Amino acid sequence: MNIPGNLKYTNDHEWVKVEGNVATVGITEYAQGELGDVVFVDIDEGLAEISKGKSFGTIEAVKTVSDLYGPFSGKLIEINSKLSDSPELINEDPFGEGWMIKAELSNTTDLDDLIDAEAYKALIGQ
């Protein structure tokens, strides 16, 4: 299972890539595998901010619908528009083309609650 060492992770199986004060968020390979084939991603186009611990959208798969939670608080910069027509990108490339949102961090201390790749491996029993 691919668990890139350069990313941070949440206990909700999201990954965060921080570049300066902008962070990209997606779900992990483990999460997409547990969900099954992703058929729809719903992130409100009018959303201006995400809040740590609060839902910013949902992901629908063949097996279930799950909430997506903000791993930090920040100003939403971009939603991956490719997911509207091709939600399967999350299954095919969860750490690349399957990213979900980009946001500007409001408070970098929010990142202190994220875990590294080794801790995430332990979380999923790898």
Give structural attributes.
six-stranded antiparallel β-sheet; 9 strands; alpha+beta; OB fold (Dihydrolipoamide Acetyltransferase, E2P); 126 residues
> How many angstroms separate the termini?
8 Å
What is the level-2 CATH architecture name? Beta Barrel
The main pleated sheet reads as: 6 strands, antiparallel
Average of per-residue pLDDT values: 95
Give the strand order of the largest sheet, numbering strands 1, 2, ... along the chain: 1-2-3-9-8-5
Extract low-pLDDT stretches: none
What would CATH call the homologous superfamily? RNA polymerase II/Efflux pump adaptor protein, barrel-sandwich hybrid domain
Structural class estimated from helices and strands: alpha+beta
Could you give the order of the helices and strands? EEEHEEEEEHHEH
Percent strand: 35-45%
Question: How many β-strand stretches?
Answer: 9
- State the domain count: 1
So how many helices? 4
What do we call the CATH topology? OB fold (Dihydrolipoamide Acetyltransferase, E2P)
